[in-house]
TrEMBL record:
Protein name, UniProt field: Laccase
Reported cofactor(s): Cu cation
Catalytic activity: 4 hydroquinone + O2 = 4 benzosemiquinone + 2 H2O
Kinase as UniProt keyword: no
Gene designation per UniProt: LOC116197663
Gene3D superfamilies xrefs: Cupredoxins - blue copper proteins (2.60.40.420)
Amino acid sequence: AKTHYHDFVVQATKVKRLCKTHNTITVNGQYPGPTLEINNGDSLVVNVVNRARYNVTIHWHGVRQMRTGWADGPEFVTQCPIRPGGSYTYRFTIDGQEGTLWWHAHSSWLRATVYGALIIHPKEGSSYPFAKPKRETPILLGEWWDANPIDVVREATRTGGAPNVSDAYTINGQPGDLYNCSSKDTVIIPIDSGETNLVRVINAALNQELFFSIANHRFTVVGADASYLKPFTTSVIMLGPGQTTDVLISGNQPPARYYMAARAYQSAQGAPFDNTTTTAILEYKSAPCPAKGISARPVMPSLPAFNDTATATAFTQSFRSPQKVAVPTEIDESLFFTVGLGLNNCPRNFRARRCQGPNGTRFTASMNNMSFVLPSNYSILQAYKQGIPSLYTTDFPANPPVQFDYTGNVSRSLWQPIPGTKVYKLKYGSRVQLVLQGTSIQTAENHPIHIHGYDFHIIAEGFGNFNPKTDSAKFNLINPPMRNTVGVPVNGWAVIRFVADNPGAWLMHCHLDVHIAWGLAMVFLVEDGVGELQSILPPPADYPLC
Ligand code: C2O
């Protein structure tokens, strides 16, 4: 196993998109940031230097961080932010994960431009569970704002309304042919006739689930979130923010240029969204050059309608692990968390411009009616491990405090989220089942729920209210997929299981970033096990304090 050393300089960089030049926060001047490639079993040492004017942290999305929670990255959960002028070196080992993950800033909305791919090849001396691909290509789907993304979220939290939708989607940082001033920078992905290539698709968008497709080419899906899948074929994939999907494509079409494209899957009815389409070009190396003056527009894939929940659902429900997996069958902790939006009344003394949600309210979001508030002067992990004074409490509820018809019409009086910094304690080694139940308060939508420090088995998903009696018959305890981010279906539920085998403070949140700002988050505090082996390692010497 090797150790890979990298320097990440977070800095403002001039970036030209959609006809304008912006002062964009990047890593090493690159947008998207550098791709890290390693083998399963290797270690990473990444020295992050902050030369920007914002606080920053870097999160290694999906990396389990066994015993190295200090390197996980979410600000005020596992560390205090790296202040302007400061630095911090993240050190961790990849142990058992293979496939595609990514890294991103975990501080306000910096991740809009501060992100990159983290590619984990098979362990040295071992190989893929499929024929070795000729080429491998990361495809990072992103969202671009003409405004500074930090200002967009600040404005939303100040007014209580929804943030402005993005101005473009991007593939590897470029909007592509269909946007103004973007044609000549359209990304070109090469392929040769007869070869099979591995395409690693990452949804790095802030707030939007996306469909992705390539004209005339089918995908064989082989992995997601750095776990292998039992292969299946499809012409379109859907990813929530945070999710990755590995697909094989074959160069079996007439040599030419073909568009690959992504656009919104929008499960929330009536909510505004960016309805544009980003494209890149899949180009056969032997394709004839387009003759001068003849328009050589590539073929466009047909993407599902923006509200095609049936296609999105059919896709994710095709996921299976390749083999039988060890799903816990006995459960020590049976949890039921609602996930959804809400509205809070505008306090009387608020000026109206601060309450621009529906009918003069403020948007909020919650799990089990608790709207998570990040600490601002300590990190939860450090407070827990080193007993420093803190204000978090351990009374996050295991069940919703009020029972109601979660997917029906609910009166708002039943459900006004309470702000607080509450964590749920899990005993080291306990076997956890968590039902995530979407609610229809304000807007029902698909919420991509991500847990830090863990992969989990998704043993069932469905629509309506979860019914423990009838729905447990649907549990797949044989070969359910493993993921780190589950899309809880709109007006529906998902059931996940995992063993709490990684001590630390682990954020769970909706990966639609504006929902974090509104409170759709909580923290699992997994207690240290007995004995040296199960215990979290001591913090590094340069660990940022508040
Ligand atoms: Cu991809 Cu909490 O993050």
